Amino acid sequence: MAASAPGRARRGWRRARAAGSPLSPAAVVLLLSASAVLAPPSVKVYVLLHRKSPHVLCVTQQLRNSELVDPSFQWHGPKGKIVSENSTTQITSTGSLVFQNFEESMSGVYTCFLQYKPTVEAVVRNLPLKYVIYAYREPHSYYQFTARYHAAPCNSIYNISFEKKLLQILSKLVLDLSCEVSLLKSECHRVKMQRAGLQNELFFTFSVSSVDTDKGPKPCTGHNCESSKRLAKAKNLIERFFNQQVEVVGRRAESLPEIYHIEGTLQMVWINRCFPGFGINVLKHPKCPECCVICSPGSYNPRDGTHCLQCNGSLVFGAKACL
């Protein structure tokens, strides 16, 4: 195994001292500068898809607070050398890399080669700085509800009419929150009740998700317009609506209607999904634990799953199939 630069420098120093020969000033400078060329470990950077990136620095934290003489910066990315100015990237006068509109295909390994002198008299030092830059997206989060209704006979047109009316009411409830209701499944079954006969029941499964605030009926700005806060309000409205149905049925003096909500059957679950090619991985991306980060080479996500799956044949970022 090849020895590291600091190891060679220390052994050279010890051999010179053991031999009794003094080191020349130039040799001292060479041995000391050898320890400065070791690159720090690669740094992970996360950039929200279709947004401007933060400044990716071509300097270590230690050198950031130091004086650098005649510094020069050269960036290389997945497609080769990066010029100082183009339509998608910018390299600032201090060597920082900035992406204007980050795309999936821009994810990958980026290296900045920094040349500088710590003082005017010192020799030039070279330092490669490696970054792995990942595109990420916010998870597609939504509430999934299931509810059961006592129903008319399963072939009755009244059930279809009721389903449409229920969806209209639920959609109107959450409209001002820039949320939408989508029917996932509706089925009618005959159910044998405990110590009773058969009855017809409707099984509804629907989702409540947020939409872009600029697509809603009223423009929404501010802290309360975050997707999670709007969804929480929508959930509360829907739960209140079903609770009110139970209360109304309980207060009826006359016989029950043919179609009514069955108390205790409303269930809800919070679901996070990532788009194909992206996944959540707290262990791999601890600094972005709830982000849908683009799948690294060696993994893929073929559908709206939560995690990237292992695939040794995947050689690109954002794979949607295992080839």
Describe what this molecule looks like in 3D.
The protein is α+β, with helices and mostly antiparallel strands and 323 residues long. The chain contains 5 helices and 16 strands. The strands form 4 sheets. Strands 1, 2, 3, 6, 7, 13 and 14 form a 7-stranded mixed β-sheet that branches. Strands 8, 9, 10, 11 and 12 form a 5-stranded antiparallel β-sheet that branches. A hairpin with a 7-residue loop joins β6 and β7 (125-137).
Short description:
With 323 residues, the protein is of the alpha+beta class. It has helices at 5-19, 25-34, 61-64, 157-173, 227-251; strands at residues 43-48, 69-77, 80-81, 89-91, 97-99, 108-117, 125-137, 140-150, 179-192, 198-210, 260-261, 267-273, 278-279, 292-294, 299-300, 309-310.
